[in-house]
Amino acid sequence: MALRARALYDFRSENPGEISLREHEVLSLCSEQDIEGWLEGVNSHGDRGLFPASYVQVIRAPAAEPPAPAAGARYANLPPGGFEPLVPSAAFNPPVQQLPPPAAAEPFPLPPAFPPAPYSGSYQPSQGSDDDWDDDWDDTSTVADEPGVLGSSYPDYDAAGGGGPASARYRLSTRSDLSLGSRNSQQPGHPHHHPGGGAKSSATVSRNLNRFSTFVKSGGEAFVLGEASGFVKDGDKLCVVLGPWGPEWQENPYPFQCSIEDPTKQTKFKGMKSYIAYKLVPSHTGQQVHRRYKHFDWLYGRLAEKFPVISVPHLPEKQATGRFEEDFISKRRKGLAWWMDHMCSHPVLAQCDAFRHFLTCPSTDEKAWKQGKRKAEKDEMVGANFFLTISVPTGPAAALDLQEVESRVDGFKSFTKKMDESTMQLTHTANEFARKQVTGFKKEYQKVGHSFRGLSQAFELDQQAFSANLNQALAFTGEAYDAIGEFFAEQPRQDLDPVMDLLALYQGHLANFPDIIHVQKGALTKVKESKRHVEEGKMEVQKADGIQDRCNIISFATLAEIHHFHQIRVRDFKSQMQHFLKQQILFFQKVTQKLEEALHKYDSV
């Protein structure tokens, strides 16, 4: 019998030779022997390639394949009860790659070793001919070093112009309940080691076995477990406040907008290389700068890596060919305008240093651009340290109820699933209707117009003077229907295309939220585990309280982001539907006016 395996988690391929998996999908294995933590097999689509061995469970006996989810549903493979933690249950006992249990004498078990992932970050800049990094825009010295030890002392902060005296920086740490001293005191042979004693200090919250999960890669797990430590500047603080509807991001005290205008084709290297530059004019500076798509792409990558609990809007899709065509340039500019509007409207993203550098650095000052780029790439407030920058309300009135938080997040997950399905359906319907207007409706109306003109030409053979006005009226009616056909062909650009642009932007947001929710769900799982340890007398209450406090920070941020999404969604769809209906009214008024003109031609017959 052929070897088979069942996928335990979703996996999206991002490198050549890999294949994507869906949870519960059954695969055929080429071999049970893994290659540095990777297996080779064939998925249900017939694609053959590599995938992480830790993502699947080998099936030893024949098993029926579960029914496939509905096509096109991004969330179809998620369990109906909500996001389940990626930590296998206690009953899970994979038949292959069994991890040896930690030594009995080790009270603080270290995480099991896992093969390195083929990619290191959550975001990989897309590749395209119009976005290659040029030698004059960057050089090898601008590549950021890997972040150092979490507790680094920022030796070059003041020298780099970070600004401010040392008192403007605050060292925050979540290591109080996992200090090195307490760890060492539990090691066999340590002078303060007491074998068999101290039951409350012998248990810790376990780490996720799936080291590829968003909860782990985002730094959420390390933060909740108390392993984050670093200096937080005043300018890095992100404040969550209690509003009338619950937690929300503190408003930007200096709101602004930024227009994107005049995309122009420019050349370099004496005309050997061409590119499109967009003029950006921020309202708070009034100074225009020019940016290429690759600059947008770089900024998106930095923001997506830095803010794991914030939905960074997706950029318009890239295109390798036809990127200098007028229609494509116009469509991309409109997509970038929507993207910029959402960036400026977000209280956190709008105040990010990298975004400010992107908007204000003069286009001609290459040195200043590279310095700001290096600074953004060496930002140490990423990963687990990012969560140190979040400031949340305190006091009894601000206490979060875990069950209520979980219920609200589960409700939002159901909402995003339904919204995703409906936006995909509306996009398909609008696209099909626009196609009919551009081709089918135009053709049909012009056929009617041609027929009326044919009748007019036939009547002209009569040569009767009293029929001349009728012949002219019939000819004008044919021309009116030709014009109406053109109206239909041009109309989608005025009403349907803007709706589809908005839907595309929100489909990007909806694709972000499963990862955001997964981070919050992972934190809740750690709280439940710590409470169970306390009830069993295996963990001190103080340590469990620290885990819950840090989970509350993630929950506050998640709820604030959900609130912002709903707030901006109501604003956008109200504005866009008003625009759509106004354009529809103007369109039918034009059609009516044309028909009335044709009607009046018969008054003189």
From TrEMBL:
GO cellular component, one term: cytoplasmic vesicle membrane
Start-end of Pro residues biased regions: 97-118
Pfam family, any one: BAR_3_WASP_bdg
Transmembrane segments: none
GO BP terms in the entry: cleavage furrow formation; endocytosis; endosomal transport; mitotic cell cycle; plasma membrane tubulation; protein transport
Entry keyword annotation includes Ribosomal protein: no
Subcellular location: Cytoplasmic vesicle membrane
Keywords tagged on the record: Cell cycle, Cell division, Cytoplasmic vesicle, Endocytosis, Membrane, Mitosis, Protein transport, SH3 domain, Transport
Domain (SH3): residue spans on this chain: 1-61
Residue span of region Disordered: 92-203
Topology relative to the membrane: Peripheral membrane protein
Ranges annotated as biased composition (Acidic residues): 129-139
Main location: membrane
Biased composition (Polar residues): 173-187
MF annotations from Gene Ontology: phosphatidylinositol binding
Binding site for a 1,2-diacyl-sn-glycero-3-phospho-(1D-myo-inositol-4,5-bisphosphate): 292, 294, 332
Entries under PROSITE patterns matching the protein: PX, SH3
Domain PX: residue ranges: 256-366
Family label: Belongs to the sorting nexin family.
PANTHER family, A to Z: SORTING NEXIN, SORTING NEXIN-18
Name recorded for this polypeptide: Sorting nexin
Organism: Mauremys mutica
